[in-house]
Design goal:
The complex is a heterodimer of chains A (about 240) and B (about 350).
Chain A lengths: L1 E6 L24 H10 L6 E6 L4 H9 L7 E5 L4 H16 L6 E6 L7 H14 L1 E7 L23 E10 H10 L2 H6 L3 H7 L5 E4 L10 H15 L4
Parallel strand pairs in A: 1-2, 1-4, 2-3, 5-7
Antiparallel strand pairs in A: 4-6, 5-6
Chain B lengths: L1 E9 L2 E8 L7 E10 L2 H7 L5 H7 L7 E8 L10 E4 L2 E2 L16 E2 L12 E4 L3 E3 L5 H4 L2 H16 L7 E5 L3 H13 L4 E6 L2 H4 L7 E4 L9 E6 L5 H12 E9 L11 H7 L2 E4 L5 H11 L2 H8 L2 E7 L2 H13 L3 E6 L2
Parallel strand pairs in B: 10-11, 10-13, 11-12, 13-14, 14-15, 16-17
Antiparallel strand pairs in B: 1-2, 3-4, 3-8, 3-17, 4-5, 5-9, 6-7
The chains are: A alpha/beta (about 240), B alpha/beta (about 350).
Chain lengths: ~240, ~350
């Protein structure tokens, strides 16, 4: 089985003054999370879509998704205390509700990246079947500057080897759970990115080509940009 | 969901635009395009060969009206997931039994007055797709071209023609080739003469009964009916030559598009009592017939010869490559759509 795990656990601390968490804001008419979910709903390779939301937004999300006809492909559960914990909550939900097989895959994706494409989803599935884990990236365009003491440059890595991470990140579920459960509590607190766990454990993570427009809507500026992308460019129908 | 639509913003400039779409409208089926082919009409927009007023009115516009794809999602469940379908670019607004759907003034047409198929996902009315089986995917993209030929040949059939011993095709490009294939089905006992400007192109018609360069036609060469598939300014000379070599009361089927008006010798048309048929685009029924014809393996093999090149589209830059290559390709440039 191939599952999509939609990470909507955040409450939008970086968004500034918003009553609704960022995933429930709208770009045009539909909430961001609905636009994201629909890319997975229409993908015939994806069997189930599991959405993890903050506990106090659970009923709101259930009611929201009920408005759409395809709601039977979607399951909703509560997010965890951080990103990886949320992924684990989804994995546990899958294990309890559907059982786990060795080849089961989870495509984890930020609810607030609604501009992803079918090609990105399909490439994730294919690469994950072959390599066991994937990370969606784009080539870095800015030079990355490292400063350990936050005052002086400690390193400037060669940009040729630098990528910016996006989502989806996809994993064979059983392996992901095993690796995560081996971590100490301290490691769990430091390793906020699931792919980073794989990298540290010397496990292969295959890169999948993302898109520059597969942006994450985190700040008010991102939301404004997303609105401009859709309204200005998309409204000029012939 | 947010769909990515590749639009021509101005000649030689494509841009990705985004549009929020409804996925649960029962009237629409969601298709993932797999192959597209470039038509001369798309090239005219791309190269900015349409006049300035037209370009200003129509752009930004998503190009391409020849495409096949796979069903991604059907909210009503009538179509199977991953089913191969051909998409019909013509979209009539309402039923009118007196006028065929491709000639109705209110009909919308992809890459003309509505966005074409250069999109990540196509939202298309369910009566505008037809499942296809037993046809190679890359060849099936030529179904639109074949349906246009079906429309034209059907139109000829509707005229009360008495004699049909020899039919001439002027302009042996991809449209002419499709007309030739369809004529062979509808008029198996007629001789088909193909008339072109270069021997190289005529060589693509190994089974044609007769092949001539335009300079080789003798005064006594006569045809019963003719198809003009030349288009552009050159269609003026082609039509002139057709009028000279067609028998009285013959039918001239026009398929070539010319940007500017051309001169036609109406005096001779009157004298010979000729019928001139205008042919443009095609209907659902024409697509159905084209599909039946293309199921034949030999015809698929013949039509595949019309594909000059297949260009893989992995990003927007590849689209420029496809359109630029198409300018020099003899026949069709097909895009394998991986976007």
């Amino acid at each position: 089985m191939i599952y999509a795990g939609i990470l909507a656990g955040g409450i939008g601390k970086r968004m500034g003054k918003t009553e609704l968490p960022k995933q429930f804001l709208t770009i045009t008419e539909k909430p961001i999370i609905i636009n994201t979910l629909e890319q997975f709903v229409i993908n015939s390779n994806v069997d189930k879509v599991i959405v993890a939301v903050p506990e106090n937004w659970l009923n709101y999300t259930i009611d929201l998704i009920k408005e759409y006809k395809y709601s039977d492909k979607i399951e909703i559960t509560c997010g965890g205390k951080d990103r990886n914990d949320t992924i684990m909550q989804i994995c546990k939900y899958i294990e309890e509700k559907f059982g786990l097989k060795d080849d089961d895959i989870i495509i984890t994706h930020d609810a607030v990246r609604p501009f992803l494409t079918q090609r990105i989803i399909n490439d994730n599935i294919e690469a994950c079947k072959q390599y066991g884990a994937t990370d969606t990236v784009i080539q870095a365009t800015d030079t990355i500057v490292e400063s350990v003491d936050k005052e002086l440059i400690s390193n400037i890595p060669n940009r040729e080897y630098m990528y910016q991470g996006q989502t989806p990140q996809s994993f064979k579920i059983k392996e992901l759970m095993n690796i995560y459960n081996e971590l100490t509590e301290d490691e769990k607190n430091i390793l906020t990115d699931a792919c980073k766990i794989y990298a540290i454990k010397n496990k292969n993570v295959k890169l999948v080509k993302g898109e520059i427009y597969n942006i994450k809507i985190t700040t008010q500026y991102d939301l404004k940009l997303a609105k401009m992308m859709v309204k200005i460019k998309g409204e000029e129908d012939a | 969901m947010l769909n990515q639509i590749i639009k021509l913003i101005e000649p030689k400039k494509f841009e990705i635009c985004f549009k929020e779409e409804k996925i649960d409208d029962d009237e629409y089926v969601i298709i993932r395009p797999t192959y597209m082919s470039i038509c001369a009409a798309d090239q005219r927009y791309y190269q900015g060969l349409r006049n300035r007023e037209i370009l200003e009115k129509k752009l930004p516009l998503s190009l391409i009206h020849e495409s096949v794809g796979k069903v991604l999602y059907d909210p009503k469940g009538e179509f199977k997931q991953n089913q191969n379908v051909v998409m019909i670019p013509n979209t009539p607004s309402f039923n009118d039994e007196d006028i065929k759907e491709n000639y109705r003034l209110d009909s919308l047409f992809r890459s003309s007055n509505i966005d074409g198929f250069m999109q990540n996902i196509i939202f298309i009315r369910r009566d505008r797709i037809i499942p296809i089986e037993n046809i190679k995917e890359n060849v099936s993209v030529l179904l639109e071209l074949m349906s246009v030929a079906v429309n034209a040949v059907e139109n000829l059939k509707k005229v009360n023609i008495t004699s049909c011993n020899r039919i001439g095709i002027w302009g042996p490009g991809s449209v002419g080739y499709a007309v030739y294939i369809i004529l062979k089905q509808y008029f198996p006992n007629s001789k088909i003469a193909v008339i072109g400007t270069t021997r190289e192109v005529l060589n693509y018609y190994p089974l044609a009964d007769e092949k001539y360069l335009i300079t080789e036609l003798k005064n006594d060469f006569m045809i019963d009916h003719a198809f003009e598939c030349v288009g552009g300014e050159k269609s003026e000379k082609a039509i002139d030559q057709i009028i000279k070599h067609i028998k009285p009361q013959g039918t001239i089927s026009l398929l070539g598009v010319s940007e500017d008006p051309i001169r036609i010798n109406t005096r001779k048309i009157l004298e010979k009592g000729l019928t001139v048929l205008g042919n443009s685009r095609s209907s659902y029924a024409d697509f159905k017939k084209a599909i039946e014809i293309l199921k034949n393996d030999d015809i698929q093999e013949n039509m595949e010869k019309m594909i000059s090149e297949i260009v893989e589209i992995n990003d927007v830059n590849d689209i420029y490559t496809a359109f630029d290559k198409d300018i020099n390709n003899q026949f069709k440039t097909v895009m394998k759509w991986n976007l």
